[in-house]
Amino acid sequence: MSAFFTIFLFLLPIFLLLVRRRSLPKGVPPGSLGLPLIGQSIGLLRAMRANTAEKWLEERIKKYGPISKLSLFGQPAVFIYGQAANKLVFASDGSTISNQQAKSNQMILGDRNLLELSGEDHKRVRGAIVSFLKPESLKQYVGKMDAEVRKHLEMHWQGKQRVTVMPLMKTLTFNIICGLLFGVERGIRREKFVARFQEMIEGIWSVPVNLPFTRYNRSLQASTKIQNMIKELMKEKDVELEKGASPHQDLITCLLSIRGKNNEVITEKEIVDNVLLVMVAGHDTSAVLITFLVRLLANDPDVYAAVLKEHEEIAKGKPSGEFLTWEDLAKMKYTWRVALETLRMFPPVFAGFRTVLKDIEFEGYLIPEGWKIFWATSMTHMNNSIFPEPTKFDPTRFENQASIPPYCFIPFGGGPRICPGIEFARIETLVTIHHLVTRFKWKLCHTDNFFSRNPTPAPTGGLPIEITSMNLM
C-alpha cells in the first residue's frame, strides 16, 4: 500500500501537467508551463538573486521568440516586452487587463488596493490618495522630511567611521513613512511596525506554499498583525479628528477625513489595504534609489562634483539650521536627472504582473482570460535603440524628457496607472542626498559593482562605506 501511494504521489504532478497541456486554448504563445504550482518561479527567483534575470529573460526570447508562456507563483502567464507591450500593460482602460496581482500577493497586501482595483473604483481610491500625495499638498511636508533626515544622520552617521548604507536607508525611509504618512512617532510602535513589515515583504516574491515555517506563511501572519495595528491607528485618528485635528497631518488622517464626508468615498478595508501598499511601495523603492545613488557618487567623480556643487550653492544661501524648502528642491535639477538615470539602470521594481479579464490578441497570439501578463522594466530601459549606449551612465538623457518615447522609461509605471507617489519619492531622495553630500565624504569598502535582487536590488554587503564628516553645515 505504501509503495502504491509513493508511486501515486510521484505520478500525480506529471498527470496534472499533461492535463493542463491538453486543455490549453489554441493560439497561445510558445513556451512551457512547467511543473504545477512551481512552474518557472524558482528559476526566475534564482536568476534575480544572481543578478542574471535579464539574461534569463533574453534566453527565453532566443528560445521562444518575443512572446512566450510560462507559469509564475502558481499561475499561468505570458511574458511580453517592448514599448508596445508596456503600452498594453499601462494604458489599458481596465476592461480587458486588470492590475490585479498574483493571488498569493493579494493574500498579503489585500484585494482593495490600487494594484487590484479597476475602473471607477480605481479612480475613486486613487483620487483619495492623490489628494495627499499631490505636489500642492506635499509642499508643507518638506520641512518635516528634512527633520527626519537630520535626526537619522545624527543617530546613525555622525561620529561613525563606517556605515552600511542599504539597511540605514531602509530605516530612514520607513521612519519617514511612519512619521509623514502614518503619524507614528519614534518608539515601540514604530519598532513593531518595522519588525512585522520586514517579515511581510519577504514573502511577496516567494513560492506561495502556505505551510508552517515557510517564508510565505510568515509573510501572511505578519500582514495580519500589521492590518490590526493599522486599524488601531485608524481608531485613534478618528478620535483626534473629532477633537479638531487637522485632516492633513498624515495620510491615514487624510483618508479618514475624506471617508467622514461621504462613507462611499473610501472604505475602512480600502484604507487598510492601501496603507499596506504604500508601506511596500514607499519603503524599498526609495531606499534602493538612494543606496545606488550613494554607490554611483563614489564611483563617478565627475557626477559627484556636479552634484556637490549644486547642493553647496543651495546650502550657502540658507541660514545655519534652516530647513530645506520647496523652492530649494526646485534648484536640484541636475541631482534629479542623476536619480532618473539611476532608476533607468537599476530600477527598484524588476518586473510586474497584470491579469487578463477577457481573451485578447497580442503580436498574433492569444492571451487567455484569467492568465497573467508578465512584464520587465529593464527590457526597454536597456534597449540600445531607445537609450543609446544603455550601459553608460549619462544623466544628460533626461535634460529633455519629452524626447524619450512614451512607455519606455517606466520605473514609476505609466499612463493612468503611474505611481501616485512620484513627488513623494522625489522630495525624499533630494532631501537625503542634499544632507549626505554636504555633510559627508565617503568611499566604498567593496569595489565590485555586483548586486542581487531579493526581490529589490541590493549591493554587496548592503554597501558598506567609510565616511568622514565635512562639517559644512
Describe the structure.
With 473 residues, the protein is an alpha+beta fold. It has a domain at 21-109 and 350-382: Uridine Diphospho-n-acetylenolpyruvylglucosamine Reductase, domain 2 (2-Layer Sandwich). 53% of the residues lie in helices and 10% in strands. It has 18 helices and twelve strands. The strands form four sheets. It has a five-stranded mixed β-sheet. Strand 1 and strand 2 form a beta hairpin. Helix 9 (165-181) runs antiparallel to helix 13 and helix 10 runs antiparallel to helix 11 (215-242). The chain is globular and about 70 Å long. The N and C termini lie far apart (78 Å). 41% of the residues are buried.
What's the SSE blueprint?
Layout: H1 2-22, H2 41-49, H3 53-64, E1 68-72, E2 75-79, H4 83-90, E3 97-98, H5 103-109, H6 119-133, H7 135-138, H8 142-156, E4 162-164, H9 165-181, H10 188-202, H11 215-242, H12 251-261, H13 268-299, H14 301-316, H15 326-330, H16 333-345, E5 351-356, E6 360-362, E7 365-367, E8 372-376, H17 378-381, H18 422-439, E9 440-444, E10 451-453, E11 457-459, E12 464-469
Parallel strand pairs: 2-8
Antiparallel strand pairs: 1-2, 3-5, 4-12, 5-8, 6-7, 9-12, 10-11
Helix pairs in contact: 2-3, 6-12, 8-9, 8-18, 9-13, 10-11, 11-12, 11-13, 13-16, 13-18
